Amino acid sequence: MAARIGKRGNRVRGKDGDSVRQELDTKLGEVLQSRANANSVFDILEYLESENEDEVLAAVRTCAKLFESLLEKGELYIGDLPAEEESLPDSLSAEEKYKIWIRHRYNSCVSCLVELLNAPTFQVQELALCMLMKFVRLEGKFPLESANWKDSYRFPRRLLKFVIDGLLQEDKDCSPLITRFQEFLEYDDVRYYTMSVINERIAQVVQSTKEPLPSAFLNNVFGLLSSINMPVNSELSNFLIEQKEKVDDWKPAKLKEHKKAFERVWMGFLKHKLSVSLYKKVLLILHESILPHMSKPALMIDFLTVAYDVGGAISLLALNGLFVLIHQHNLEYPDFYKKLYSLLDPSVFHVKYRARFFHLADLFLSSTHLPVYLVAAFAKRLSRLSLTAPPQVLMMIIPFICNLIRRHPACRPLIHRPTAEGDLASDPFIMEEQDPAKCRALESSLWELEALQNHYYPNVVRAANVISRALSTQESDVSELLELSSYELFEKEMKKKFHSVALEFEPVQGLLGRKHDLTADHFSL
After folding, report:
1. Gap between the Cα atoms of 507 and 500, Å rounded
2. How far is residue 153 CA from its own chain's centroid?
3. DSSP characters for 236-300?
4. What does the domain layout of the chain look like in residue ranges?
5. Quick one: pLDDT at residue 335?
6. How far is CA 201 from the centre of its chain?
7. Calpha distance 318→339 (Å, rounded)
8. For residues 501-517, b (16+ Cβ closer than 10 Å) or e, as one string?
9. Residue ranges of the chain with per-residue pLDDT less than 50
10. Residue 483 — left, alpha, or beta (φ > 0 → left; ψ -120 to 50 → alpha)?
11. Which of the ends of the chain has fewer CB neighbours closer than 10 A, N or C?
12. Residue 235 pairs with which residues in a beta bridge?
């Protein structure tokens, strides 16, 4: 990028906003009217370095008008630009020297706008971003560089890279500006080149900082990547820069190439060490926003299996992605159910991803071809955990267990075993065993559900009473109970209307409450 504005002394700013705008408009008119007034460009550019926000905003708008007009008139040098410090050969005409000089001023303007992406106020940052993207469109329409491979289409990738580098700061949260940039990602060409430029930016930061990468930078990259809405239709026609003619082998116009670029940038990002919070954010959107748009989703197998083995909330969130790979891409995971079984511990009832976990667990356990010992192990483990579960969870867990038994009639002995004794000492079930095949669940019974018939919450008692009757074949709908909260239970109880109950009682008489007490006449209540 060219050097910034030359030093012309520090101008004393004592003008109001209207005066500054008038001065800028005057300078703009002078430059556009005659090349003899070309040095007035310095006066316009100097305002970009002002400490006054209104002056900077006015200068940015004036620069946009100035260089838009100059680009349209073809007054900027086209091709490899000589360095400004170099002496120009005498063979160049005055026209060419002028265009080279204007091109350097344009580069100085772009440099200032890129720096303004770090301005103290968002208003200045936003305007600088919009003007840079306007220059991207103008450079595409009036190219300044030689065509790389086709004369019919030229995208100013270099200028876009300056913008992306400004969005992906290493030590600053750029999420507001990235959110504003999302509007431009709706253009197919901008989206495609943005994905390729992000990879270059990551490699650049890796080379300069080594591992681990700064957390602010990784958060910015994730924010930009998660803002990308991949197209669904194979026909791509929404471009920031219009094509002069249709090019069959132009990659940004092909959905297949978009998917390849999307896959490369995500794989390049996920290979780096992420914080726990960022890890969770990725897993939350993986199944809906990433896997469906990859050309080869199976490449995510290693990432998801490692995440599934981490444990805790990370494993719960990895279930969504594994579900997609198992059901849609034939992923084989031999110890999947063993790992799923080990995730059942008291904490699973209290994490905020509880509803998602039990929704997926219900899907994984819906197959009627599962071994009886496996289903029995899940039903028994959930029953044991229910002894210490909060009531809002019990309202979902009890129907969940009953649904497992309805799907697998071979498990009915768990609720119809009269010889089973309801106490921990005599129960053959091994709660600490992590392998469902060795926990001896089929030898036990669901006495825990019978114990819940004495629960303090009446609705839990009613739900637990189901096992004392003949279990119906119709499954219960647990979808509405997955996200039930204690607040909702409390609100429901508060809204109940109770009828007044008539009570007969004999008022207490006397100081000590005895009938015919001598003090009753003097101390009656």
Report:
1. 20
2. 33
3. ----SS--SS--TT-GGGBHHHHHHHHHHHHHHHHTS---HHHHHHHHHHIIIIIGGG-S-GGGG
4. 1-146, 154-273, 365-497
5. 82
6. 20
7. 12
8. eeeeeeeebbeeeeeee
9. 1-13, 149, 151-152, 525
10. alpha
11. C
12. 254
Q: Are 223 and 178 in contact (CB under 8 A)?
A: yes
CA 17 vs CA 14, 131, 144, 371: distances in Å? 10, 20, 34, 78
Pick the closest to residue 475 from 360, 358, 341, 362 (CA basis).
362
pLDDT score at 111: 94
Cα 159 to its chain centre, rounded Å, is: 27
Contact 355, 348 (CB under 8 A): no
Q: Residue 350 burial by CB count (10 A; 0-12/13-18/19+): exposed, middle or buried?
A: exposed
Angstrom CA distances, 18 to 22, 26, 43, 60, 138, stand at 6, 12, 17, 15, 29
In the numeric block, which tokens belong to residue 48? 């970009």
Quote the longest CA-to-CA distance of the chain. Answer: 132
Tokens, residue 355: 């509803």
Give me the residue label for tokens 């997609």.
324
Query: What amino acid occupies position 95?
Result: E
Task: Extract the tokens encoding 359.
Answer: 């929704």
Distance, CA of 268 to CA of 390 (rounded, Å): 43
Q: In the block, which residue shows the tokens 């968002």?
A: 122
Separation CA 113–CA 115 (nearest Å): 5
Short-list 41, 34, 38, 43, CA closest to 9: 43
Number of CB atoms found within 10 A of residue 287's CB: 20
* Distance, C-alpha 26 to centroid of its chain: 47
Rounded distance between C-alpha atoms, residue 464 and residue 399, angstroms:
9
State pLDDT tens for residues 32-67. 998 888 899 999 999 999 999 999 999 999 999 999
Angle at CA of residue 124, ends 121 and 125, nearest 5°: 85
Q: What is the reported pLDDT for 224?
A: 96
CA dist., res. 251 & res. 325, Å (int): 28
Do 139 and 156 touch, CB atoms closer than 8 A? yes
3-state secondary structure 419-463: CCCCCCCCCCCCCCCCCCCCCCHHHCCCHHHHHHHHCCCHHHHHH
Only one residue has tokens 């699973």, namely: 348
Backbone φ, ψ for residue 231 (5° rounding): -70, 155
pTM: 0.80
Distance in angstroms (rounded) separating the CA atoms of residues 525 and 520: 8
